[in-house]
Design goal:
The protein has an eight-stranded parallel barrel with strand order 6-7-8-9-10-11-12-13, surrounded by six helices. Strands 1-3-2 form a three-stranded antiparallel sheet. The protein has a two-stranded antiparallel sheet with strand order 4-5. It has helices at residues 12-22, 26-32, 48-60, 87-97, 104-119, 159-172, 193-209, 222-230, 248-255, 280-297, 317-325, 345-351, 359-371, 382-399, and strands at 38-47, 64-66, 78-86, 125-126, 129-130, 138-144, 176-180, 215-218, 235-238, 258-262, 305-308, 336-339, 376-379. By secondary structure, the chain is an alpha/beta fold. It folds into two domains: 37-119, Ribosomal Protein S8, Chain: A, domain 1 (2-Layer Sandwich); 125-399, TIM Barrel.
Length: 400
């Protein structure tokens, strides 16, 4: 009987292990492992002349570059490009591009940096400590001290109940407690800054006093973030990617705080009004990349930043599913990646369930996000998610 060929799905580490099992010489493994790792790299809006050189260079190396059909006619100024090749071919491409015109030298540096993110260790530094050092997926527990949040609004408006819940989440395995005093559900209006402060500050102070090591404040206001950081928080979780308040980036710098930058469209009151994207992943990536660049320009170190694609914020069901499946692409920005899908409406749309009956869907979404490349998940149901991710974390190292 003829044995059927088996197509393998392996990480770079898995490729090395497979060659070792085959009995390949160690030096042969070193030479060949990059030939077995295939990459698809998208580059947006590059000079059309650069794109044509890029294609010819990659073809000469045995790879290829996909361009718009009208690129060859030089009738356009810029084009996106999809580079296709092995890690070895891309490495050689970088060498060929350095010193070339039309922005190709800068592209070489960017390609080199992006490829390095694939094998580099992950970082999200809070209070001087890399929370991702041991490879464990981080779990952020949601603590809404609001009256109108979509899932648990009104449940923890009493500060004593909020503190008790925060401590419970830590005991259940949460790495971060995220305290929010303003609802960001679709259609929600703004609350007065003093109201937001009155909700979050007592809870943050009490949690910090109880020894909770990592507390984040879910806010888009620099004034609220400043007070929260002074009260014991060490992370800013900003759904606007620091775009609603120009002072937010400097607040993070001054307090040496970490920050999570999320993609959204508009404000919560109107974000679900326009859900059409020409290219969803490209637009989300571009927004977050720009947000990180602005934060860094203000003085925030790269390792203290994290990005979030904003599940449910200006996206429909299929768009949310796509972002979860492709969360790992955001790693090319070079920061940690968080996904917050817990109890969101897309889960209800798929399962046909109300917000109180989305546990299994939430855990499934969190697990899929981690397998897709997320470093952290933001959840309501901490204990169930922590248990599930103990299994997922053992699997992900073999598939990512």
């Amino acid at each position: 009987m003829t044995l059927r060929p088996r197509i393998l799905r392996l990480t770079p580490e898995g490729i090395r292990d497979e060659m070792t099992r085959l009995g390949v010489d160690p030096e042969g493994i070193r030479i060949m492992q990059d030939k077995a790792s295939h990459l698809l790299i998208r580059v947006d809006a590059i000079d059309i002349r650069a794109a044509l050189i890029l294609k010819q260079d990659m073809l000469s190396l045995g790879g290829d570059v996909a361009l718009r059909r009208d690129a060859a006619g030089l009738t356009i100024d810029k084009t996106p490009a999809l580079i296709m090749g092995t890690s070895l071919q891309v490495g050689r491409l970088v060498s060929k591009l350095k010193g070339q015109p039309f922005g190709l030298g800068g592209l070489a540096d960017s390609l080199e940096g992006a490829v390095k993110t694939l094998g580099s260790s992950r970082h999200f530094v809070v209070n001087g400590r890399n929370l991702l050092e041991d490879g464990k997926t981080l779990v952020m527990g949601i603590l809404n001290v609001t009256e109108d949040s979509f899932s648990d609004g009104g449940q923890y408006v009493d500060p004593s109940k909020a503190v008790a819940r925060g401590l419970e989440m830590i005991r259940q395995g949460a790495d971060i407690v995220d305290v929010g005093g303003e609802s960001t559900r679709p259609g929600a209006g703004r609350v007065d800054p003093e109201v937001e402060l009155s909700r979050v500050i007592p809870v943050i102070e009490e949690l910090a006093g109880e020894g909770v090591r990592v507390i984040s404040v879910d806010t888009t206001r620099a004034s609220v973030a400043r007070r929260a950081l002074a009260s014991g928080a060490s992370v800013i979780n900003d759904i606007s990617g620091m775009s609603f308040d120009d002072g937010m980036a400097s607040v993070a710098v001054d307090a040496e705080a970490s920050a999570i930058l999320m993609h959204t469209r508009g404000e919560p009151r109107n974000m679900q009004a326009g859900l059409s994207y020409r290219d969803l992943m490209a637009e989300v990536y571009s927004f977050l990349d720009a947000a990180v660049c602005r934060a860094e320009a203000a003085g925030n170190p790269h390792e203290r930043l994290c990005v979030d694609p904003g599940i449910g914020f200006g996206k429909d069901t299929e768009q949310n599913v796509e972002l979860i499946a492709r969360a790992g692409e955001l790693r090319s920005i070079g920061t940690a990646v968080m996904v917050g899908a817990s109890r969101k409406s897309f889960i209800g749309n798929i399962l046909g369930t109300e917000v109180t009956d989305r546990l299994e869907g939430s855990v499934a979404a969190a697990s899929a996000a981690v397998l897709g490349g997320a470093d952290m998940v933001r959840v309501h149901d901490v204990v169930q998610t922590v248990r599930a991710l103990k299994i997922v974390d053992r699997i992900k190292v073999r598939v990512n």
